[in-house]
Amino acid sequence: MDAYEKALRSWTADGVPTNPAAWIVRTARNRAIDRIRRQARWRDKEPVLAALLQQQADEAAARRREAVTYDIPDERLRLIFTCCHPALAPSARVALTLRTLGGLETGEIARAFLVPEATLAQRLVRAKRKIRDAGIPYRVPPAELLAERLQSVLAVVYLVFNEGYSATAGSEVVRADLCAEAIRLGRLLAELMPDEPEILGLLALMLLHDSRKHTRADAEGVPILLDEQDRGLWDRLQIADGLELVERALRMGRIGPYQLQAAIAALHARAPTAGDTDWPQIAALYGVLEQNLPTPVVKLNRAVAIALAGDLPEGLRRIDALAGEKSLREYVMLPAARAALLRKAGRWAEARVAYDHAIQLCANDGHKVLLTRKRAEISAAELG
Fold this sequence. Notes:
mainly alpha
């Protein structure tokens, strides 16, 4: 087509050549040769141009990273990220952040870590001294450093919620202010880092537990056990929100401890009655959780789940094996769980002793009343 266009222009100006067909063939051939040469030159230059374009893109991305100070949309959350400094040991940074920003007292934090209060106090002193002596700066980390602090931030939020959900001391069973603040921080984290499945798992876990808050204590402030709660009063909208978050997190294919705990909470939430609870599935999930997080508390919870799934002797055997765990010596839930299972097995005298031990360790007024009532029920059953 180019040859014909050139012929029209050339022949109009210069006249028709003697052999028009030969003129067109020669012109078309020359145009084709020119095009082949241009394409060859472009192929030679293409890798160089591609490299230059990639270099420009890399430099632009680097400039953007340098310019970003991550927009953490909340002052407390910014401070939590700031305090969870990687120069401190994980337990120290979490404890210090809980004490400084989480609204928890030293004794409450110590119970969360299953250590004596004096031990926790010394950790806090050492952490503060290290910050002072090393000149560790307190500033919000840039975007690319948030990930290395995320696990500590999640631990802070989780432990704040835990203390709110089941207060370890005082007269309240539930501290709604701590639960609400932890959930608020969890929602902010989910907005900030929506592709982190453990954030979604933690938020789901908190929502599913918190959905039961109105049924967790009676009018006198005494706790109501899970299997005795009025499930019709559970917050169904909150449960639906939590279930959707669990499913979204698990679909990401990066399973972590918070997601597994949320999946366990989801099985409780889905059960229409206590008798419908899928304890075998819960026990299986605790087995996976123990592989990811082999803590004494997870082992204790797995033992209880195994017992309630139908193997009561194995559950009790596992609990008895945990009696030597140093970190569980002052943990009220160990003798309380053992007492409940011994009662279920009809071993009344041993159950009464276990309840006495739990009552002795308990620092929460409402929980102490509940344990005392359960012990009295054993005495009544023996007399009956």
